[in-house]
């Protein structure tokens, strides 16, 4: 089987202003929220909700660093869905593919965070490739290579009181959804974006990413008020 630069969704990242309150809120919603992790290099802290093959991440700033300057600006407008992390067969492979697509990717970045597994402290390790805001189709994308997936995707962490099992997809609000077709195809390949009655949908290889106007979003998801420019579909099926 050939190796792929992008092979679907890995996780979604929601920026929160006040990670303590956010942790309590997601626990009230019935998620098994993992203990806080710290990205020392990035100046951020997170909590994960692990599912079978993907996960949901809430992320807060704990120390101002050059790595989180854009995220701090994002929080000034209230936070919300900041990034969609894409699964990959290798950060270097993704870097080369994104460069060839004209996305001007940053060089692969290594970082880690401590996790406790069976009473022992381990270090989950990652390599990511980010694309600058100039090529961001409303919501930012980056690829995430898991060097130590055994310290992230653990069956005992994927059991939630609310029975959530996965992320069904991502929905992004855009004034003119169709205008993002070409940008999305640079990430997911030619022909990966199709029209729907109320917007467009990108085939990521796993879960879909839909782009809708605010009015069409309200019709598709009545009673749900989005935060900023995007929201995630309900995790679970």
Q: What tags apply to this protein structure?
A:
13 strands; 18% helix; alpha+beta; 2,3-Dihydroxybiphenyl 1,2-Dioxygenase, domain 1; single chain; disordered C terminus; 237 residues
Question: How would you describe this protein?
Answer:
It is a single chain. This protein is an alpha+beta fold and 237 residues long. It has 2 domains: 9-157, 2,3-Dihydroxybiphenyl 1,2-Dioxygenase, domain 1 (Roll); 170-232, no CATH class. It contains 5 helices and 13 strands. It has helices at 19-28, 69-75, 91-100, 181-188, 214-220, and strands at residues 9-15, 37-39, 44-50, 55-61, 80-87, 109-117, 120-130, 140-146, 170-173, 193-196, 199-203, 208-212, 230-232. The strands form 2 sheets. Strands 2-3-4-1-5-8-7-6 form an 8-stranded mixed beta sheet. It has a 5-stranded mixed beta sheet with strand order 10-11-12-9-13. A hairpin with a 4-residue loop joins strand 2 and strand 3. The protein is globular and about 50 Å long. The model is unreliable at 229-237 (pLDDT under 50).
Architecture blueprint of SSEs:
Elements lengths: L8 E7 L3 H10 L8 E3 L4 E7 L4 E7 L7 H7 L4 E8 L3 H10 L8 E9 L2 E11 L9 E7 L23 E4 L7 H8 L4 E4 L2 E5 L4 E5 L1 H7 L9 E3 L5
Parallel strand pairs: 1-4, 5-8, 9-12
Antiparallel strand pairs: 1-5, 2-3, 3-4, 6-7, 7-8, 9-13, 10-11, 11-12
């Amino acid at each position: 089987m050939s190796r792929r630069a992008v092979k679907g969704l890995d996780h979604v990242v929601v920026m929160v202003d006040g990670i303590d309150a956010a942790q309590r809120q997601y626990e009230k919603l019935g998620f098994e929220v993992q203990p806080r992790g710290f990205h020392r290099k990035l100046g951020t802290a997170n909590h994960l909700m692990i599912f079978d093959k993907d996960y949901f991440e809430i992320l807060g700033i704990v120390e101002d660093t050059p790595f989180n300057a854009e995220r701090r600006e994002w929080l000034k407008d209230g936070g919300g869905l900041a990034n969609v992390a894409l699964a990959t067969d290798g950060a270097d492979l993704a870097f080369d593919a994104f460069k060839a697509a004209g996305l001007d990717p940053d060089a692969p970045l290594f970082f880690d965070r401590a996790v406790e597994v069976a009473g022992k402290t381990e270090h989950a390790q990652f390599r990511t490739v980010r694309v600058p805001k100039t090529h961001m189709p409303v919501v930012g994308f980056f690829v995430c290579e898991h060097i130590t997936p055994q310290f992230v995707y653990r069956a005992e962490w994927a059991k939630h009181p609310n029975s959530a099992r996965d992320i069904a997809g991502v929905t992004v609000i855009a004034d003119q959804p169709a205008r993002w077709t070409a940008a999305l195809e640079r990430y997911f390949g030619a022909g990966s974006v199709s029209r729907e009655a109320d917007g467009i949908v990108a085939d990521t290889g796993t879960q879909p990413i839909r782009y809708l106007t605010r009015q069409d979003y309200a019709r598709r998801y009545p009673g749900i008020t989005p935060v900023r420019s995007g929201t995630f579909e309900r995790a679970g099926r």
